[in-house]
Amino acid sequence: MLYWYDPMVPAQHFDKPGKSPMGMEMVPKYAETAPGAVGVRMDPSAVQNLGMRLATVQRGDFAERVEATGALDFNQRQVAVVEARAAGFVQRVYGRAPGDVVAAGAPIADLLVPSWEGAQAEYLAVRRAGSPALEAAARQRLRLLGMPEGLIAAVARDGRPRTVVTVTTPVGGAIQTLDVRQGMTVSLGQTLAQVSGLSTVWLNAAVPEAQAGRLSVGTPARAELTAYPGETFTGKVAAVLPAAEPQSRTLTARIELANHDGRLKPGMFATVHLDGPARPALFVPSEAVIRTGRRALVMLAAPGGRYRPVEVRPGREDGDRTEILAGLDEGDKVVASGQFLIDSEASLSGLDARPLAATPAASPQASAPAALNETRGRIEALSGDQITLSHEAVPAIGWPAMTMTFTLDPSGLGRGLKVGDRVGFGFEQRPSGAFIRRIAKGRPQ
Question: Residues 213, 236: contact at Cβ < 8 Å?
Answer without folding.
Answer: no
